[in-house]
Amino acid sequence: MTKKLLVAALLLAPGAIAQSPLYGQCGGIGWTGPTTCVSGSTCVYSNDYYSQCLPGSAGTTTTTKTTTTTSKATTTTSKAATTTTVSSSTNCQAAAHGFASLNGGTTGGNGGTVVVVNNWADLKKYATSSGKYIIKVSGKIVATTTGEEIPVTNDKTIVGIGSTGEIYGGGFGFKNVKNIIIRNLKIGNTYDGDWDGKTHDWDGIQSDTSTHIWVDHCIFERGADGLIDLRLDSNYITISYTTFRNHNKVLGIGWSDNVITQATIHHCYFQNVGQRNPSADNLKYAHLYNNYLNNATSYGHYSRGYTNMKLENVYFEKVHNPITRDSTAILGASGCTFVSCTGSTAANSGTAFNPSSFYSYTLDSTANVPSIVKANAQPLAPICPS
Ligand SMILES: *[C@@H]1O[C@H](CO)[C@@H](O)[C@H](O)[C@H]1NC(C)=O
After folding, report:
1. Which molecular-function annotation in GO is an example for this chain (predicted)?
2. 31 alpha carbon to ligand 1 midpoint, in Å?
3. Which residues of 269-305 are buried (b: 16+ CB within 10 A; e: fewer)?
């Protein structure tokens, strides 16, 4: 066979051409799907059960581990000898999927000036500058004024380096801005001792009338008010692979009579929380899938006001009132698992929208959601290695 024919035969062989999409699974125990990723992404090992296609140059390094169910780790395949680290593009760029990918998309500071910051003053300086910036956060940055929300301007990516980027004692505020990516960061610890959150209006992210927002691979914990408050017609929002923990008022979306907000919330981990997990009030479209809630004391996913909510393959464990719906709201929930839950779960009502008519996405099976979410809903070093 000539070389050309051999290549053609390989390309035509079933399985040989299949590649996982960005953020798709590409390995792990029991995985029978593709083990390579589409161009522009790299297969990154998370745990024995899950490897994922993350943004980065394809084909440079592959760290997918193939395992058997009995032994811990078996083979590690390294494709190219030239690269030794699993690397995202050097500028830590990525673009959003889900609702944040619509109507022009969310690309943050892609293509702009790249800066590294390690203190509050520099973070503030670049986050409030005009123009495109990719602001890489090195280590833990402590807010000089507790509770301050840096007023981020258009076209910014704020991304933690490695897995240790952190905003401690402060957060971000978006006011009439667009195109902002917050990735790979731990944010929070403004807690003032008031569990009800009535003493200080200090949020991890507070967005008013802003659009194209992507929060990805972050941890939000112990805030004074809301961990994330998305208010007053904020729109085109995606929150992915993010943990919300040790907090009362977690994720509120709404505070508007208009019904225009569209949000995708998936593979998020709500752990040891009170209410608003999330509370989705008057959303035109709320797409919630593959989230894992463990120990929520007040309520879980809430379709509120005139929201149209599509809720798929969510794993609820020790959640009080796992799914709530107002009489005016639409709810289409399917494939969920409930373990040791209390209170009540709302019945479906009305005709939920079809997310597939807006964007493509891949549902993980509900049984795998806890392990996938626990391994991924946090900063991960390969997202922005340096
Ligand atoms: C459950 O979460 C609440 C916070 O909402 C916390 O106070 C409590 O200790 C948690 N329970 C367990 C068993 O972790």
Report:
1. cellulose binding
2. 34
3. bbbebbbbbbbbbbbbbbbbbbbbbbebebbbbbbbb
Residues 253-284 have pLDDT tens digits of 999 999 999 999 999 999 999 999 999 999 99
Ligand 1 surroundings by CB, under 6 angstroms? 272-274, 295, 297
Per-residue pLDDT band at 79 (split at 50, 70, 90): very low
Q: Which of 294, 295, 342 to mutate to test the pocket of ligand 1 (most atoms within 8 A of CB)?
A: 295
Q: Give pLDDT, residue 89.
A: 54
Minimum CA distance residue for ligand 1 atom 8: 272
* pTM recorded for the entire structure: 0.81
Q: What is the CA(78)–ligand 1 centre distance, in A?
A: 42
Q: What is the DSSP letter of 64?
A: P
DSSP-assigned states of every residue in 197-253: --S----SEEEES-EEEEEES-EEE--SS-SEEEETT-EEEEEES-EEEEEEE-EEE
How many of the other CB atoms lie within 10 Å of CB of 223? 29
Grade residue 171 by pLDDT with cuts at 50, 70 and 90: very high
Residue nearest ligand 1's atom 14 by CA: 272
The one catalytic residue among 183, 231, 276, 325: 276
Predicted confidence at residue 57, as pLDDT, reads: 56
pLDDT tens digit sequence for 111-138: 999 999 999 999 999 999 999 999 999 9
- Among residues 203, 323, 181, the alpha carbon closest in space to that of 255 is found at 203
Span 99-377 CATH architecture: 3 Solenoid (2.160)
Where, residue-wise, is CATH 2.160.20.10 in the chain?
A: 99-377
- Give the pair of three-digit tokens for residue 174: 């978006």
